[in-house]
Amino acid sequence: MKFKRILLKLSGESLMGEQGYGIDVKRLNEYAEQIRDARGKGVQIGIVIGGGNIFRGLSGAGKGFDRVKGDQMGMCATVINSLALSSALGAIGVPNRVLTAIRMEPIGEFYSKWKAIEAMEKGEVVIMSAGTGNPYFTTDTGSSLRGIEIEADVMLKGTRVDGVYTADPEKDPTATKFSDITYDEVIARGLKVMDITATAMCKQNNLPIYVFNMDVVGNLARVLEGEEIGTYVHA
Predict the structure, then answer these.
(1) Domain limits at 212?
(2) Among 1, 105, 117, 125, which residue's Cβ finds the most Cβ atoms within 10 Å?
């Protein structure tokens, strides 16, 4: 096993599955089962989920929403997804807890680094929701921050594509995939791995990122076993 503690970043869009909106129960349960199997191998797991399947603050601002309120709506969307994942994990016997960056007991406990680490060391899966609690920060930045705080060995960024490409492979058939790439090259090429703030934070704090397709069942286990199925972003 390559990693003792991971920060798993899940895409809100991926939770939509084939539906085009909301939460696809089949996809949710597939995620929960993959997470259960990873925990069964002794890996400590912290999770951050996006909210784009429900509401995205930046696109809301483009439709006339106040940006701060739009981002707060996006934070609430991540909490809804986190509760859904928590419920799915609980249904298959995986102990877990939801921590929120904004106080909202009894929905979740207020986040602190030490609470998260203590729970992971006890074998619980910790789902960290509501982004950073601040507007103008994406869930990518939230996951970078949480990954650094909980002293994760790596951020595993589960997306709909199987790694980082020279261009968007869903739009450009000539796009080629990197097996590994440096933070600096990601920033210099303007690649959409994560936003620049998130990538810069990972670089400054030496948190490597592994981008892979989480929507293929079994891929999380393959990554943890060291199979090279995605893209490794590092110093």
Answers:
(1) 5-234
(2) 125
